[in-house]
């Protein structure tokens, strides 16, 4: 509340106005002739007012940026703490600070000492907002300052907050970090993967993931085998979010490279994934595992048989029984990618792995729920399987008939959705086109 005591405590170069809506507005006329004691009183006043409905004139932001560069260490430190509160107060306040030029004073504060944490917190808040005003040059300057700071070997808490700052920046959509800055910071990110502090190591893995999601950046980066070994070490630590991120990172980096897939196999990735899924078959864990199989494993030439015969793949197949439509979408999508990328030999391996009954059950469920994505995925899988296994068509067609899938496909030939109808008709006409001798019924 506005009271006379607050007004009496106001430094001579300020004024407080009470707006009609009850908001207090503090105006700062200037601090040129003020003493350090008066400046400290201003800081205390602002801290008090920040606990009330308060509006600040732009001059206040300019004033505090000057105080952050004060020759008096107390003023410099205390003003920084207040700027953190202001930045954390609202997006609008954070934006005004940026517009007034807060970045440079913050970077100047990144010296070894106890004020670093507040500087890093403010940078984190600002970068989280992805302001257009933070251009590529500014981001490059931030990265350079962080690198210099990390060279001083700060405490783990400060390293971790530096990682959070970088992750916020790498997650920005506006003004992406220039490639030369990415290359400059990457050796530090890779080095911190080996840090014994799990939070630091996993945080760096996340930073690398964010950078590699940009194809323009990823294609200019190379990683030696030791990086994958370190990531696999982190994957084995039972932290769900980190495991999901590392699988996603592998999906981005490895592709269908059998040499790199071999490194994963040598370090027990299938067993690690199985343990992760058994411990918590959450949607997020299933999703990360499915995407990994789709992007990495199904294109492998050397390891595909071992992959299809693995307990991990059997476990993923079993999730087709889930009543969660979201899980059904991911699993049916995985089936389609596997069939699409595979050849006749792989399709027969899928059959041995009991994929066909799971596919039939998904089709029957999807007809009842009428989820078009699941229906489309399953029908596309059927089509891919039948078109690649002409020499085994009668055997495969019989499998689908026995599990009830053919009855569903026949009904879907009359579906209102053109895509679903087209897939169904394509499947049913396939054998006619090849002189169907598989079933008198058709």
From TrEMBL:
Transmembrane segment boundaries: none
Biological process, per Gene Ontology: protein transport
Top-rank taxon, per record: Eukaryota
UniProt KW keywords: Protein transport, Transport
Coiled coil: none
Gene3D superfamilies: Leucine-rich Repeat Variant (1.25.10.10)
InterPro entries membership: ARM-like (IPR011989), ARM-type_fold (IPR016024)
Family in the record: Belongs to the importin alpha family.
Protein name (database record): 26S proteasome non-ATPase regulatory subunit 5
Organism: Panagrolaimus davidi
């Amino acid at each position: 509340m506005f009271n006379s005591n607050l007004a009496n405590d106001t430094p001579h170069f300020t004024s407080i106005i009470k707006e009609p809506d009850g908001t207090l507005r503090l105006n700062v006329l200037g601090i040129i002739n003020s003493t350090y004691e008066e400046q400290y009183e201003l800081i205390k006043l602002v801290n008090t007012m920040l606990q009330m409905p308060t509006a600040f004139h732009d001059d206040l932001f300019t004033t505090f940026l000057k105080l952050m560069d004060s020759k008096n260490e107390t003023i410099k430190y205390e003003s920084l703490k207040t700027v953190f509160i202001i930045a954390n107060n609202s997006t609008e306040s954070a934006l005004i600070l940026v517009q007034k030029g807060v970045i440079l004073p913050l970077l100047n504060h990144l010296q070894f000492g106890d004020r670093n944490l507040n500087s890093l917190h403010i940078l984190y808040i600002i970068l989280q907002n992805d302001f257009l005003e933070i251009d590529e040059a500014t981001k490059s300057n931030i990265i350079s300052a962080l690198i210099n700071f990390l060279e001083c070997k700060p405490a783990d808490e400060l390293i971790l907050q530096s990682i959070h700052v970088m992750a916020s920046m790498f997650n920005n959509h506006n003004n992406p970090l220039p490639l030369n800055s990415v290359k400059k910071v990457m050796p530090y990110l890779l080095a911190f993967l080996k840090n014994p502090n799990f939070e630091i190591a996993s945080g760096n893995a996340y930073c690398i993931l964010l950078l590699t999601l940009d194809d323009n950046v990823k294609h200019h980066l190379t990683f030696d085998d030791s990086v994958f070994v370190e990531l696999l070490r982190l994957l084995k630590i039972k932290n769900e979010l980190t495991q999901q991120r590392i699988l996603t990172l592998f999906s981005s980096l490895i592709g269908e490279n059998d040499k790199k897939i071999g490194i994963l196999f040598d370090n027990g990735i299938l067993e690690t994934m199985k343990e992760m899924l058994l411990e918590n078959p959450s949607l997020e864990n299933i999703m990360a595992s499915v995407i990994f199989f789709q992007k990495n494993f199904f294109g492998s030439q050397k390891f595909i048989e071992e992959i299809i015969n693995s307990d991990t793949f059997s476990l993923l197949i079993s999730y087709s029984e889930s009543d969660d439509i979201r899980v059904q979408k991911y699993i049916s999508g995985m089936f389609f990618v596997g069939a699409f990328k595979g050849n006749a030999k792989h399709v027969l391996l899928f059959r041995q792995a009991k994929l066909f009954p799971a596919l039939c059950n998904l089709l029957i469920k999807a007809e009842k729920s009428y989820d078009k994505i699941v229906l489309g995925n399953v029908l596309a899988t059927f089509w891919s399987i039948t078109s690649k296994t002409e020499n085994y068509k009668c055997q495969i067609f019989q499998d689908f008939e026995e599990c009830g899938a053919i009855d569903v496909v026949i009904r879907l030939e009359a579906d209102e959705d053109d895509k679903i109808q087209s897939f169904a008709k394509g499947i049913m006409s396939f054998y006619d086109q090849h002189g169907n001798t598989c079933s008198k019924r058709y």
